[in-house]
Each structure stands twice: as C-alpha cells, then as structure tokens.
Fold this protein.
Amino acid sequence: MDEKRKLLIDAATKIFSKKGYFSTSVQEIAEQCSMSKASLYKVFSSKEELFIEVFEYHQNMMFQKAFRYSTDESLSPRELLLKQLSTQIEDFIERKDFILMQLKDVPLSENSDFRLLMQRMRFRITQWQKECLLQAYGNHINLYCWDLTITLQGLIKEFLSILANKNEKVNVQAISTYIVDRLDSIVNDLLTTRPNPLLTEERILHFLNLTNSSSISKTDEIDNQFLIIEDYISSYHNEETKNNLTSSLNLLKDEVKAQKPRSFLIDVLLHYFEKEEGLTQITTKLRSLITELYTGGNGWNT
C-alpha cells in the first residue's frame, strides 16, 4: 500500500471513530493529511469508498496478525487457538471506538454497498472462527462447528462489552484462556452426549443474508493466503528480492481476479512462490484454492 493511501486510511479511522460517519467531512480528512480535497479524490472517489476501505483494511490487518501464528509449527493446536483469539480481542480493544461507531453510525439502510460490506465482513470473521475451531479440535467437531462458532462469538462479545466498557486495562490472556477453557468443556460434552446440532450452514447463511458460501469463502480464503505471503515478504531484508516477490504477488492477485484469468500465467507465478522455502506449504494451499474456485465456476482460460 502506498504511503498516501495509508495516510488517508489512518486519518479517516481517527476522525470516523471520533465523529462518526455522517459528521465527518472529506475536507477534514484531507486537512488532517495536509492535502487538498481534490488530491484525496484522486485516491478515493468518495467518502463512501474511503469508509469501505477503512473497514476492509483493519479487518485484513487483524487477519494478517493472526495468520502469523498459523505457520508457527512450535504451537500446539490449543496454543494456536489461544493466540488467534488473543489477536481478535486485542484488535477489538485497539479499535474499540471505531468498532462501536460501526454499530450505531453506519448507513446500512441507505447504501447497499455498506450493507453488502458488513455482510461479507461478518461472514469472513465467522468463517475464520470456524476454521480456527476446526484446527484446534479436529474434524470430529464438524457436526457442531457452527454451534461452537456462534458460542465463541457470544462469549467474546459479552465479555468484551462488559470488560472493555471502561478505559481500564484488559487482561487479554486471561480472557482468552477462560474462553478456551469453556470451549474445551463444551466440546467434550458435545462429543460425549452427541445431541443434535442446532445450527447448520444453511441457517447461518440465511441469518447473514447470504445464499451461497462457496464462492465467497473461497475468495476470502485466497485473500487470506495472499495476506500470509505479504507478511512473509515484508520480513525480507534484501530489497531486490522483496521487490521481485511483491511485484510477482501483485501480478498474481490481478490475474486471479481478472474476468478471464490465464491459467498458464497463474501456474508460472505459483511455481515461483513454491520455490521459496518458507512459502511452499502456503502456496500449495493457495494453488488448491484457486483451482477449486475456477474449476467450480467457469473453468480456466488459456
């Protein structure tokens, strides 16, 4: 992300958090960045576009932080879940004012783009939490994965709404450990007593006003893998290698999102990343996701 875009996102986050969407003007954000309104409009075409970008940027940053732990083979499944949960809680605390503003000041009824964005983001976090639970407890919780995901969301939401209500320091590790301990007990009880699950994927999608998760979840999973690769590239000290990898990743992103993606070019770029020792496993998963996305849709274009 270029510096000007990042500067605008940071300034917009602060002002939106403080004043809300409706009371914030593009002029204020531009002045905060020492630029003209015309210069801002060269980067973002409207206040709505900037607001949406702020949403997506911060969720991506949370995912990027959490995904760093996914490649740490020294962590047990339970330790990984604790790290992932702590990351989400820390993210909420850091951005509490902005998140609370979303709940009361986002014009969902007036703007279909905002409504679709919120649905997509909620689905994305729900899907990610489900995958975190499956990683921690294994596929034998498949039958109850949605019940457990919604239980997890409820625990996080209610504890944070109470503990983070005042400007007091929150013990993130204590909250994460307490929640995971409770999840352990619930999982053990479910697998012992085997009740019928209350929630299905169909019901979750209906609740989120979505009709089909396959293409959305695949696209989000692909985006998540891109975030992991970006994080890996950022750790390079050799600028030439870093620039080469960044350019290749941007080209791969563009090609994957193209209306008629060229399979030969995607294959060449994936092969390039597979040669990087630290990216072999991630790229293999990315290749599988891309293949599933397109063979399940319109097929490959050569």
